[in-house]
Amino acid sequence: MRRSPVRSRSPPLGRRRASLETVRPFAFGPQPNCKAPPLCYPGPMTEQPSLSLPARLWLAFLCFWRVLVSRPFAQAVWPLSASYDSGKWVSGAPSPTPLPSPAPPPKASAPVPPEREHASALALLSMLQREGRLVDFLQENVAAFSDAEVGAAARIVHEGCRKVVKQYLTLEPVLPETEGASVTVPQGFDANRIRLTGNVAGQPPHAGSLKHHGWVTKEVKFPSVSPALDPRVLAPAEVELA
What we know:
Layout: H1 13-23, H2 53-69, H3 71-85, H4 114-117, H5 119-132, H6 134-139, H7 147-168, E1 169-173, E2 182-185, E3 206-209, E4 215-220
Antiparallel strand pairs: 1-4, 2-3
Helix pairs in contact: 2-3, 5-7
Domain DUF2760: 118-240
Region (Disordered): 92-114
Organism: Stigmatella aurantiaca (strain DW4/3-1)
């Protein structure tokens, strides 16, 4: 008895060609418009509505190696896998996250007028005028007065201004030695606190005589200036009504 020849079970040529065309997009090597490493998947899965079994096997092989060699790819796949396992999978490509709107540029603040910028200094001058009549004394032409008259006026100015300084400022000498004492200026001294005069030559330390011990402000207790007040007014004009 003659046996019938065994027929090949391979699919027809047309079906094989279609299957190969389905698998071909998942080939190794760089794909068009792909900036990833050579092992590259050509596009999102939503572009393939129905994948055949060979295509899925090839995709599983590609994803396996890409997860191993590409950390960004693994980080992108992990949330999708977790969503699928938890039953929160939503078919289709995820909607892109909207970019935050840029913050508006900060508005340029208006320049502060000089009288507001130096309001504390004007307030101190106003207090010296109120307590010691300092502005009146400085604006007066003392050349027409005798020394006795100038001395008497200076005593009043001194008393009032000293009161203001002691009330709002705490002062102390820069150097504790008395004037005329011998002092040594060390190396690396603060030029803001010590000024050298006379024959200045060479490098410190310097030995010399103290001409003035200097003053440094230790504490400031100025009151805040109210915005309702005009700091330019040092002393208001006084009008006595009849």
